[in-house]
Amino acid sequence: MLDESLWRDVAEFHGHTCPGLAIGFKACEGAIAELGLDAAHLPAVDEEVVCVTENDACGVDAVQVLLGCTYGKSNLIPRLRGKMAFSFFVRGTDRQVRLVLEAKNEGRGRDEYQNYLLTTPYEQLFKVEKPSYGLPEPARLFPSQACAACGESTAEFGLRVQDGKLVCLDCYDAYEREGF
User: Fold this and answer.
1) In whole angstroms, what separates CA 143 from the centre of its chain?
2) In the chain, at which end, N or C, are there fewer CB atoms within 10 A of the end residue's CB?
3) Is 109:18 a contact under the CB 8 Å cutoff?
4) Distances in Å between the alpha carbon of 54 and those of 38, 85, 87, 89, 118?
5) 81-98: per-residue pLDDT in tens?
6) Is 36 exposed, middle or buried (0-12, 13-18, 19+ CB in 10 A)?
7) If you ran DSSP here, which 8-state letter would residue 147 be given?
8) pLDDT at 173 over 80
9) Sheet strands (E) in 24-175
10) Which residues pair with 146 in a beta bridge?
């Protein structure tokens, strides 16, 4: 079980305590246990631990603080599905786990539910399984070009060809046809 001082660190980063933050906290506890991570060597310094989050809720802040997975290091990857689910990978190994929240609030008040989450073993809160997809590739560096419409510098993966010119996704007028 993660120590109370870590909960305080997570809450300080997030700005308050809440059940959502507790869910992320317990997901990290599960990831550490299931992946055999050494808490003394956390948070991750680089991309060695990767989290694919299926939500953009409060719990993601716990992942950033405890495991060192961040958007800036490209080891916190959104795969938004609206599910309270987190997949964790350790680069250079075959260690991986997906944790899907199964615990329901069942009429508890906010504080009571948060306490329930924090004091219940992660195995009773989450379905523990293997992710259905593999480890995402490491971050790549892409050359950038100016968008022909707005002029803003845009990485190549975010450009589309429109009327023979490269434009960013904000300026791109997608061609969509339904019914086929």
Assistant:
1) 26
2) C
3) no
4) 25, 5, 8, 14, 21
5) 999 999 999 999 999 999
6) exposed
7) -
8) yes
9) 49-53, 76-78, 85-90, 96-101, 126-129, 144-146, 153-155, 159-162, 165-168
10) 153
